[in-house]
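The passage that follows is intended for readers who have already worked through the single-chain material. We present the inputs for a multi-component assembly, then the predicted structure in tokenized form, and finally a short commentary. You are encouraged to pause after the input and sketch how you expect the pieces to fit together before reading on.
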Amino acid sequence: MKHDYILVVEDDDAVRDTVVDVLQDAEYSVRVARDGQEALDILRRGSGRPCLVLLDLMMPGMNGWDFAREQAGDPTLADIPICVVTAVGRSQQIPQKAVAVVRKPVQLKRLLEVVRQHC
Amino acid sequence: MSASVPAASGDALNGLPHGENDRHAVQLYEDDAFLVGAVADFLVRAIRQDEPLVVIATREHRAAFRERLAGGGVHVERLEGQGGLTMLDAAETLDKFMVDGRPDRRLYREVVGGVLAAVASKSAGGHFCAYGEMVDLLWRAGNAAAAIALEELWNEIGNDYSFSLLCAYVMDNFSTERDAHGFAEVCRMHSRVVPTERYLTLQDSDARLREISALQQRARALESEVAYRKEAENALRQAVKVRDDFLCVAGHELRTPLTVLRLQLASLLASESVNQTPRLERRLATLAAQTERLSRLAERLVDASQIEAGLVLQPETVDLAALAKEGVDTLADVAAAAGCRVTLHGDSSVIGCWDPDRLEQLVQDLLSNAFKFGRGTDVEVVVKGRRDSAELIVRDGGPGVLAGERERVFGRFVRVEPTENFGGLGLGLWIARRIVDAHGGEISVGSGPGERGATFTVKLPYAPVPRT
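Having made your guess, compare it with the prediction:
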């Protein structure tokens, strides 16, 4: 298993489980959150530190934009890289600090490329 | 002042100022020649009553008034020399008191008040007449608010001097339904409103009543027509919104399960156990290919809805040649599956300021189109940096596009080929054109060498030029 973990923040169960499957197939350690608040709780209370957050934007509860804003405003979390994984259109704003954007429907090759760059 | 004064020409009839109602009258007109006659009559009446005059008009109108007065026997120069007639240029006078697009009250009272005071001093009885076109100039320039403000200033200064003021507006200023409110304001500002020559030329009071009735009927018919069209426009806008909202939601909802399908199939196809089972691998590959096809259709639908809502570019420095190469590389598998051999020619680097995501989409749309319709043929991609624009050409050896269809092929949901022969929604080229248009460029299709195949040519200015 590689060091650290990847935090997958996604409300859709099937998408989340699939992303976990493919990351684990590639031997990454993975934790999951169903929305932005759960993700913040994991980051603040959990042990270890993710090498990357794969962040969906449209989620009930705290959405991806609000999570990104909170994370950027917290000095203990601000340097964790975020890759946005989203189905929103090109006209929608992507959080400025995202290191990459992977648009749904996700291509495995593209997803793994981004993950390899940061983990 | 003494002058030989002609009889009134009779061009303007009972609408001319006389009495208390004439403090501030407005002459509406359609034809310039009619206006000149009406104003000349106004001037002649004042001359006959020995009342000094001030005329603030355009150069052309001042020349026309002088000619009419002279033609009627008025010694215009003598009258001006004696102070009985003061002529000023409307635009120049306006410039002296306009500040930031509005008439400045203090400057107006200084400039116009000064002129009026000088004219008033020439009047034995203290009363004089004035004709002005500054308000019309403002209205014609699209500054209705300033015109109304200036009318208010004229009314205010009318309390300080005893004079009859005539101004004029060309009826064209009020030619749309949107002008109704402005027109009502103009009428409200005046003590007397004189209609255009179309009404004034009617001599008979019965004829005038018939004309008024006809105008009322036309106004009622127009109001109904406008109301009907507004309703139809609202219904259409609502229908378009419903369609666009649906497309947006549908697209978003399609992408979610497609993500699962794509990732799971790609992951399975990469697994060793599947690789060792050719039959299973082939079936999974078929599923993956159809998933890709579904993905492309979903993308087209979502894109079409977003482009319809308004295409916003995010330009940056882009190398079109590098982007074209990347597109060819990305779709290498699709080209291979279509049996197309792809060659890339032209300049090694063509730099411009474009939206990279949209150009990537454009390149891939044109390539996908070439692989689909030029199946089994050679596909050529050329990128050139010309003097005024960058050029991208994608050429295939397929059936081509008939000359009569070369414009229609860029229409939305248009498919110029038989639907049973080729799949797709008919959105790819429409999207391509919208992207090119947003950059201020051009896209066209012609035939290939020897009149075979299709050649799509895109010309892009080196920075986006917004279309008005």
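Commentary: Chain B touches chain A through 28 residues (CB under 8 Å). Residues 1-17 of chain B have pLDDT under 50 and may be disordered. How closely did your sketch match?
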